[in-house]
Amino acid sequence: MLRPTAAVAIFLALTGAALAHTGHGDASGFAHGFAHPLGGLDHVLAMVAVGLYAAMLGGRAVWLVPAAFLGAMASGGALGAADYALPYAEIGIAASVVALGLAVALRISLPVLAAMALAGLFAVFHGHAHGAEMPPDISGSAYAAGFMLATAALHGLGIALGVLIARLSDAGGRRATRVVGGAMALAGVAILAGAL
Description:
Layout: H1 2-17, H2 24-38, H3 41-57, H4 61-81, H5 89-105, H6 112-132, H7 140-166, H8 170-195
């Protein structure tokens, strides 16, 4: 846990140095966008859960489910940046952690299209939060590129975790999936309680 935190801190410290150069609006926008999904446990858990769930489903879902999340998140980000009100956005974000955690823990095997729709639904809430919290004085396209890249990296982390779990024995893999998904769902319940 300490190493990833240190790596993110070092990355963010290094991106601050880019602000000394001309044209820093894009660098600042990218850094803000990249840091935004990493700054909240709700976002991190949901995005890792998407990758983990996609890996658990396997096949085309490994790339289609995260791609659906990214596409819908971009749409939600545009809505948020345009100041379009999305009721219950924080509840939708917290519910995504609960639902995706349970999908992993219970090994719910949805058809790929249904899994894409589920991921896309929740992604709109996450994207809206990213767009609505964009600082007004930075480049919107650089900010969007930052939060999209950070999200894709978190999906990749979830997929890698899913592949690692799959390499365990059947019994060990199922147990690990239940533990990880259950922990995510419990964290989501706590986040949801705070949002209510």
